[in-house]
Fold this sequence. Notes:
Shape of chain A: globular
Largest sheet of chain B: none
Largest interface: A-B, 94 and 97 residues
CATH topology of the largest domain in chain B: MetI-like fold
Structural class of chain B: mainly alpha
Order of helices and strands of chain A: HEEHHHHHHHHHHH
Number of domains of chain B: 2
CATH class of the largest domain in chain B: Mainly Alpha
Number of helices of chain B: 14
CATH class of the largest domain in chain A: Mainly Alpha
Number of strands of chain A: 2
Radius of gyration of chain A: 24 Å
CATH superfamily of the largest domain in chain A: MetI-like
Helix content of chain A: over 70%
Strand content of chain B: under 5%
Oligomer: heterodimer
Amino acid sequence: xxxxxxxxxADWMTAYLFIFPVLLGWGIFVVVALVMSLYFSxxxxxxxxxxxxIGPVNYLRVLRHSDFLRYAVPNTLxxxxxxxxxxxxLSLIFAFALDQKIRFRDFFRTAFYLPSVTSSxxxxxxxxxxxxxxxxxxxxxxxxxxxxxxVQTALPTIMLVNIWSTTGTMMLIFLAGLQDIPSELYEAAxxxxxxxxxxxxxxxxxxxxxxIFFVVTLGIIGTFQxxxxxxxxxKGGPLKATTTIVYLIYFWAFGDVTPDMxxxxxxxFILALAIFAVTMVQRRFLEREEG
Amino acid sequence: MAxxxxxxxxxxxxxxxxxxxxxxxLLIGWTLIAIMPYWLTIVFSFMPKTAIFDPPxxxxxxxxxxxYQVVLTAFDxxxxxxxxxxxxxxxxxxxxxxxxxLAGYAFxxxxxxxxxxxxxxILGSMMVPFVVTVVPLYWxxxxxxxxxxxxxxxxxxxxxxxxxxxxFMMTQFFKQIPRDLEEAAWMDGAGWFTxxxxxxxxxxxxALLALAIFSFQGSWNDFFLTLILMQSPENFTLPLGLAMFxxxxxxxxxNVLAGSxxxxxxxxxxxxxxxxxxxxxxxxxxxxxx
Lengths: 291, 290
């Protein structure tokens, strides 16, 4: 095929025509937004006065702010430390169960995934009602706890709601991973006389390891960014018992009587760095596994 | 049996006998846990507002349509929220799917300078947490583009923010379809546009549909971006309106429950119709696609 420069140029222009709308939208509302956010994090500003460069002051303020240190960070870490292991183990068990010769498998899969398709707002609304002082949960347990307005129980309640809503998604990922394991491996092992526990230990778990890493990383990234449920169910209260990092960022930027968007941007970058670090650690682990 | 060996007598172990009952118990238990909150919501949304804290029951009694009537008639803005949600979800879905497919095709098949770098950057940007861009998005909407508190502004910003995943998914898809048909059409003198619109798009229905479903779900359920970009109640979408409901009409929670049905029912129906694509998409990418 003769490929003249004129033809080549026309091809390039067509290609850029194809990607132009994406490039424009993504360029402005992702790339420029990211750069602006970085700039904002080094400035002092709210909507009334223009940004004014103050250097890394915001970062120091965030890292010394009691709301950040005493509430947002510990709450987010606690949240992640409970939700991630519980939803990972639960979804793994359910995936194992569904991978057997189970009747009505499609029905179970559908039912499990249902909580993942509805909006966080509706889920929040439903659980606020279920967990209210005279609500269904207290009636079933014969208790009289004000779950969402009690400093001790508010965060655990939101953890439960999150576990309820994401376990189904994680289960689907595990199920796909389990079904990807070639059955020849099990056949070969059973010819060699391996029992079921040995197969689990030497075939299933090792083959599933990348998927487990993936689900855990996805869980950590998701729980680090929890916002909707907090906003709907408790607005960060009572007494900041459910104030998480993203909720605090939102509050600083939009909710506070004196908004401080520079400080909010700095906190957002600190969170982004933490999430980036988690992703990198996961990738390292996977590479070591493969290498 | 041709072999002369005696059959090994296979004694089922305790675990073999117990495992299926255990698995079924687990599965049925979690099914109830997953479904019950929705069922109770439906039941109580059909009961009078005074019965909201009655003992849980599986069928509405006394039955009433009052909550739905109140939601649809007494709250002027409710029908607007429904309309806005619909326009937002449809607009965002159409724009995202079409432009992602267009760009994905270029990344999968065409050669042009900057291709590798751009694709890597677009993929990498999926790692950026949404909250990082929240303040600039608000700022741009208010100061630069004057699209704050407008529905089309919301559509544009949401779509733009979700392109990276769409492009990733479509590129992966186009890369794995065979080139034969395109090459045949190319020989017949078809240009890139003909190839894309006439040859490739008709072959791509499953992928387009999967991305469309993710997009509809993501925009229909979106809360955070809508919260940042919308101000007037008549411009709210359902999730934002319902969030306001939840705080303002706490005393008439039956109405709130009835309102929430309008948000969850359409997406549940879509889920049932297109279930296969949801499941395959989740399994394939492992991402919820926002």
